[in-house]
Amino acid sequence: MFPISIYTGGSVENGPMGSTYNKPPSASYPAPDHLTFDDLKTKIFQLTGINKDKNTINVNARWNAGAAGSLCFLQMPICENTMWRMLVDKTLSGDSGWSVVELFVEAVPSSCCTHNDPGEKSQSNLECTQTTPELPTLKRSQRIRESRKNLQELSDEESFDVKQPSDELALYSGRLFDSLDDLRRTIREHHIRQNRNFVTVRSNGARYVVKCLDPQCGWKLYAASSKDRSYCQIKTIKGEHVCSNERDGEDNVNMTTEFISKLILDLVKIKGDACTPKEIQDFIHEVYPCTPSYTKAFRAKELAIAHLFGEWKESYAKLAPYLNAIQVVNPGTKVDWLSDATADPNVRIFRGVAWAFAPAIEGFKSCRPVISIDSTILSGKYGGRMLIAVAYDADDQLLPLAFAVIKDEKDESWSWFMRWLRLEVVGPRPLCVISDPQDSIVSLFDQPDSGWSTCSGQAFHRYCSRYLCENIRSSFKKDYLVKLVKWVSRQNQPSKFRLGMLRILETSRQAHNWLVKVGTRPDEESANHLWSLCEDGGYRFGILSENGNECVFNLFPQIQMLPITALVELTFTKSAEIFASKREAASKIEVEKQLWSNKVVATLEARRAKVSQHRIVSLQSQSFSHAEFEVETRSKVKHTVRLGHDQRSCSCQKPQLTGIPCSHLLAVCAYRSINADHLVDAAYDARQLLATWTPQFHNPGNPKEWPEYAGIAYSLDFKSIKRGRRKKDVWSPTLEYRCGMCNGIGHSKKCCTRNQGTLGSSISES
């Protein structure tokens, strides 16, 4: 037995010891230890005289939450038997420091509580009487959650004999949820874990009714929201699931893309575009007994990216204001748009945008006159391609110079990007451009008005050695041949280049003929200068591949999958980080009074170590302005070195091709007691390196801090983008399988005998 004091007809006040009632108890009585909450409410109606037919009651307990030996009372709402039994057990144990249960009772006019479910009118009133009364206000629901939290903290070291399920996904009558969305989420995950399906019968904000998808199963759940929608409560659960759940590995209709996207947020954030739908399927199956379809996993990945980096459609609306904010805080930043007009002069259809940050434009002035251009596919929801141009500083480090996003990679897109790059970013300075030999790029260097004409000396076009190797590998499937082509392209000595070409001819005449003819004009027999270092003329400064662009894409993780505004933001933040780190490294070089970049210093040290192995064989000629020497290496190979006021060359061609003296030239300098530092190209000067990374980026801040944008709005033509179910190639055995090369039936073009050992149309023509 334990005493209960009931207070009613007054109000709660806060005193020195916490909550107190401003009136004396209305009734008191000794209660049995096994008293339930329903029995308690019946007793309260009897003792207080509250009309049970016209009112419901809200019960709050006065609970001592003070430390041992102290009193600090707070209100704890009691709305279910679980809370009541926890209170009784705590009082009987004596841990609360208070042996009397004090209840503050409030009478509330009752409202009709029925389920408006057709076909079940005879049971609705019975179901309603078995439910727990609704809590009337948001403030009260907050007190419920707070009291549960306080009581849980007090009972961390103890266990109570209560019937409340420990599983957070358990469904039982009377359970409270913060919102209807929380209830839906719990019901969904509960059924997914059990590999069962349910269907929504009614969902109108006030009532929520679901039932099992299997018509033979009688399980049904009724829930309702409070009048002010501050919480939701399960009222009644009918029956138990008797349907089968032996469908391991199959899809579940209740596992939506939204549900999956919330589960894979961390996975997508870490792995980015490398996270494949198949990997998502495996990840989900490890947690749940079902596996989503490939298409559902694909759509869930898109949705997860939108949750992490912003909505796809909204991203296009934010793009122009964001670029405008960058231009305001970073004067000199260049932006250009490729768009189509609409009926509204203030709105244009987006086709492309190019941007270059002011610090990068300023830093490029101190870089070597070499840039690489490349493109990559955007794997996001609306596709497209990203164009990029990078430069190289005095230490062979990459400087991300300019970017562009285009809807389609067409000749017009490359022409637009390259013309803008010349006019707004790099200026009239003659440059060497390394790229793949795409027709849309190659044609630019033949146009007099493009700004990149090779005939007028505005630019020097060179091919990426990686392109050659990939073409050889895909066509001949011979690793030895790929390694041989790579070795030949890197040779600076003419004798070694000729030897390598001879070995390629012996290995594959077709590959040799293609290498000789690649990039040639009608009046040219060969164009080896486009891809070989030996015949380059020193324009590419020893840079053979545009692999730097791949490294840039590695510097911008996940960039290919991002919405467009998040993509631009990533290029800005990562570029700022690159400039900050490189600036710090360049400052250390200046402090150490180092003349050249780290790469040049290391190269010179390695070559000086070979000087002792060389021997000056003869002095061919010598004058005040010119001297010619013959240097013999340890392997008895002789090189001719020419040294003068305006000349520094060697027959090995390293000084001419890279701007860094070779070991043979250093041997002559040592022989003549000449300081070789002045023989290094000025592009490698440490001061040039520091000047490259000195400019600083200024962050535009969050969208609330952006300046007001009143310019043209750009929108993607979403109607032209085909969405919906992922297309699948379906092959029917009744259809003729015809070759596209020989027009034969029964095999494909890939397997055609005419296509074996060829490099495509370009090789066959040669």
UniProtKB/TrEMBL annotation:
Keywords: Metal-binding, Zinc, Zinc-finger. GO terms for molecular function: zinc ion binding. It comes from the Eukaryota. Coiled coil: none annotated. Residues 639-673 form the SWIM-type domain. InterPro entries: MULE_transposase_dom (IPR018289), Transposase_MuDR (IPR004332), Znf_PMZ (IPR006564), Znf_SWIM (IPR007527). PANTHER family: MUDR FAMILY TRANSPOSASE, POLYPROTEIN, PUTATIVE-RELATED. This is MuDR family transposase. It comes from Rhynchospora pubera. The lineage of its organism: Eukaryota, Viridiplantae, Streptophyta, Embryophyta, Tracheophyta.
